[in-house]
Design goal:
With about 160 residues, this protein is mainly α. The chain has helices at about 1-20, 25-45, 45-60, 65-75, 80-100, 105-120, 120-135, 140-145, 150-155, 160-165. Helix 3 packs antiparallel against helix 4 (about 65-75) and helix 5 (about 80-100) packs antiparallel against helix 6. The longest helix is centred in the middle third of the chain and has 21 residues, at about 80-100. The chain is globular and about 40 Å long.
């Protein structure tokens, strides 16, 4: 009889752990303050301080793709390409989740494409944009981005090499 209860308790714990934690309003405000302080550190080119602050903000609000992107860029400034790659992948996940929440948001689609380009996966970025454009043919922003060959412009940006792991 006891082993069954232990299995039920273990299963309940596993199921509870799978559910994402709800981020409170207070945590979002604290993360925004930390992000602001990190922006100031970036202005001063204090990369190590900015990295610590951005990591803290990302831990508080892991669904903020922009924070993860900034963390990746700062880690590249600190010559930590492995950490930057990890942060970029987290940004990609955050933007994907944002796209699932708001299917009409073309901003997160373009940001996902940018992260893919930064990670060296330009072909995936193009196919993502083509797929999303066919799913949302009336979206002016996606159409304009695709017609102006946005991925090629991203690839031609000389600053891309500095932030790519």
């Amino acid at each position: 009889m006891r082993p069954r209860w232990a299995l039920v308790a273990a299963a309940a714990l596993i199921l509870c752990a799978c559910h994402p934690r709800e981020i409170t309003s207070l945590e979002r405000k604290e993360a925004a303050n930390i992000q602001s302080e990190a922006d100031f550190a970036v202005t001063l080119r204090d990369w190590s301080r900015a990295e610590g602050l951005l990591a803290k903000a990302a831990a508080l609000c892991p669904d903020q793709g922009d924070t993860w992107m900034n963390l990746g860029i700062v880690r590249m400034r600190l010559h930590n390409p492995g950490g930057a790659r990890s942060a970029y992948k987290s940004a990609l996940s955050a933007y994907e989740a944002d796209s699932k929440r708001d299917k009409a948001s073309s901003t997160s689609v373009i940001r996902r494409a940018y992260v893919l380009v930064v990670l060296g996966r330009a072909d995936e970025a193009r196919s993502l944009l083509n797929r999303e454009r066919s799913d949302h043919p009336d979206d002016r922003r996606l159409r304009s981005f695709a017609e102006s060959n946005g991925v090629a412009k991203m690839l031609a940006d000389p600053g891309l090499k500095e932030i790519s792991p």
